[in-house]
Design brief:
5 helices; 184 residues; single chain; alpha+beta; 7 strands; two-stranded antiparallel sheet; 26% helix
Length: 184
């Protein structure tokens, strides 16, 4: 993510890595009501009524572990009825972080001499996220995980798509020809 797009995020909560200790530290994040409209636009939802997050961060050397959960109350637009309806979400979050330089060095060591080798391992942990400029932005993490948890095709409970009654099928060209032939 470029720094210009990070500055545009409606929720920011930067934490300097050097302030994180070996013993888990708790960070509580509550989005101010004045930011709800901007957060709703960012997420593409009708409205946001509540957004909180609780994180535990601990550091061991350069590695930072983050665990927590996000709680949100919002309104999404139903894809069937186009009506706003309430949605409540609880989203678990678990991430590891390493300095950007270490991730780049590990990726460079894996590449070899210009070869591209992609290996997909199932049931493996995700690779660590980069620590950019010694900061982890809990606001950006909150928005990212909340966006991933949203239903891309939200449907209001009880909403159903009823097909329109088919109109009379148009007459086939062959039936029209037979009718014309019969008129002669």
């Amino acid at each position: 993510m470029s720094s210009a797009s990070k500055d545009a995020l409606p929720l920011r909560h930067p934490v300097r890595v050097e302030t994180i200790t070996l013993r888990p530290m708790t960070f509580e994040l509550t989005a101010p009501q004045s930011d709800f409209a901007a957060i709703a636009r960012h997420l593409g939802v009708a409205s946001v009524e509540k957004l909180t997050a609780s994180y535990s961060l601990s550091r061991n050397g350069d590695r930072v572990k983050l665990e927590g959960k996000i709680g949100a109350a919002l309104h999404q637009i139903c894809v069937v009825s186009l009506e706003a309806f309430p949605v409540a979400l609880t989203v678990p979050v678990k991430l590891d972080f390493l300095p950007e330089a270490e991730i780049a060095a590990a990726a460079g060591a894996d590449q070899g001499e210009g070869e591209i080798d992609i290996e997909v391992l199932l049931n493996e942990e995700d690779p660590p996220e980069p620590i950019v400029d010694g900061v982890i932005d809990l606001g950006a993490i909150t928005l990212e995980f909340l966006a991933l948890a949203l239903d891309p095709y939200p449907r209001k409970p009880g909403a159903s798509f009823d097909e329109l009654a088919p109109e009379a099928a148009p007459e086939s060209p062959f039936a029209a020809l037979a009718r014309l032939k019969g008129e002669e």
